[in-house]
Design goal:
The chain is about 40% helix and about 20% strand. It contains 10 helices and 13 strands. The strands form 3 sheets. A 6-stranded mixed beta sheet has the order 6-13-11-9-7-8, with helices on both faces. The longest helix is centred in the middle third of the chain and has 19 residues.
Amino acid sequence: MGAGRLAIVAGGGDLPRRVADQARRTGRNPFVVGLKGFAEASLLDEYNGSELSVGELGRLIQLMKREGCEEMVFAGWLKRPDFSALKLDLKGVQSLPKILAAAKKGDDALLRAVMDVFAEAGFRIIGADDVLNDLLVGAGPLGTITPTPEHWQDIRRAAEVAKISGSLEIGQGAISCAGLILAVEAQEGTDRMLARVAELQFEIRGTPEARRGVLVKRPKPQQERRIDLPTIGVATVDGAAKAGLAGIAVEAGAALVVDRDEVAGTANQHGLFIYGFTAAEIT
């Protein structure tokens, strides 16, 4: 990493705080910029951060340069904005045609177009896992429970569907139970997808007493991996438990876990497995 400050562009969720805390512990003197409507106010208060609209690209660049930032990281979740209602500064207006053109190609193209604006301004963009290097899920089980041969059929099936879905810019996740695809993640996100599955009839899904089915999350094949890697946390495990699933599988080295020990402990309590699969295991 460079010697300058690290700018953290914060969306929603716990990840921005964890990145900021680690950056502070390692002497990076983080500068936190919260995206309006997403970032937690308490995070901005603690780090004396600034709050900007998603469309204020020029102001963000000016602030990061003023604060001596050389690198920047995007952390936390965002929803695709309503471009017609965005508050834009001059740089935002100048960049909008390129961003709109990219948006028509999907979320990944949109993210790359936004990243290009900051790269052209001289910033190096890194991933949250570059700051929190223990955040990546490794190969194998995260807790004490491992998938059975029956579970592996669902892991492979859901992984195949998630890859196809991702290539079409639909989402990063899918749920399979006994070979039947129960849900594919779209714009609603993982938590709401799991809630939908929890409402399905017991005949086609598992229950807390007889768990069946697997949630698989993996990056889109074309994904920019410095932003929006699949992420799981305690809420993901709780949602999978309520849906009667037997486990969660993510691509090893390509997914993030927030609160690793708590996630593993919660999975153990629910009787679920969490597993990082390799390419060889799903082919």
